[in-house]
Design goal:
Layout: E1 7-11, H1 16-27, E2 31-36, E3 46-50, H2 56-70, E4 75-78, H3 94-121, E5 125-130, H4 143-162, E6 168-175, H5 184-192, H6 211-222, E7 233-236
Parallel strand pairs: 1-2, 1-4, 2-3, 4-5, 5-6, 6-7
Length: 256
């Protein structure tokens, strides 16, 4: 019960990482508001609410709802995001970029802006934002998506600095290839073409991840176990980002 009696908001909670995290937070004792533009699942200690994470009005309403229902706010997991596909810079429009940045980067900004003042009243809190390995270097996502996630990594650093002395920690999680609704087309294509064994083959663990593995990383950052972790981007990618991808057989390396 690492989050006993804590109050948490999780965005993007209708599926994938968000749903797994909302369920795990609740199982660990938190009162959770699960928010999504689609209908999130309710459950024991989980209150579902429809909300657009990139809308200031909706985010402010989420924060007010947490206070009205549970008396305050301790944890926000700003997880909602969209991929925008893999079109090149030369194929995307300013409108594409605007929408991707609105959800992926402005969304976490709004969560921090509206949650932090209430967390100060509780004398502390934890804000977690979903970034990506695509925000660390090229090759893991489309251009606007990658730029938005790089922005999230910098955002948590800036926010952690500006909240100095408030006992509010702001961190990011950088997932690698995780099987979610966002990556479903890749997984479906791999399975239909008989190439499922290629999923995640570039990382040392030789597999993709599952939402629960990211949810447990979020739980660590939400709990007091990470009380001295702040302004950090926690990479959870099976080791993908520790090196540039290369052909192991070409370099004479095989599995042990």
């Amino acid at each position: 019960m690492r989050l006993q009696d804590k109050v948490a908001i999780v965005t993007g909670a209708a599926s994938g990482i968000g749903r797994a995290s909302a369920q795990l937070f609740a199982a660990e004792g938190a009162h959770v508001i699960a928010a999504d533009v689609n209908e999130p699942e309710g459950g024991d200690n989980i209150v579902p609410l429809r909300a657009d994470a990139g809308s200031e009005e909706d985010v402010a309403h989420l924060i007010r709802s947490a206070v009205a229902r549970f008396g305050g706010l301790d944890i926000v997991f700003a997880n909602a995001g969209i991929s925008g596909g893999l079109a090149s810079i030369f194929e995307q429009t300013p409108e594409d970029w605007s929408e991707i940045l609105r959800v992926n980067l402005i969304g976490p900004f709004l969560a921090i802006k509206h949650a932090a003042p209430l967390m100060k009243e509780r004398r502390g809190g934890s804000i977690i934002c979903t970034a990506s390995v695509a925000g660390i270097r090229a090759g893991a996502g489309g251009p606007a998506y990658s730029a938005s996630k790089a922005g999230v990594i910098n955002l948590v650093e800036v926010a952690a600095t500006q909240l100095a002395g408030a006992n509010i920690r702001v961190n990011a999680i950088c997932p690698g290839l995780i099987e979610t609704g966002m990556t479903k087309p890749f997984y479906d294509w791999a399975r239909q073409s008989g190439k499922e064994d290629r999923l995640g083959h570039l990382n040392p663990l030789k597999r993709g991840g599952v939402p629960d593995e990211i949810a447990h990383a979020a739980l660590f950052l939400a709990s007091d176990e990470s009380s001295y972790v702040n302004g950090h981007a926690l990479v959870v990618d099976g080791g993908l980002s520790i090196s540039h991808p290369y052909n192991r057989q070409e370099y004479g390396q095989t599995s042990a």
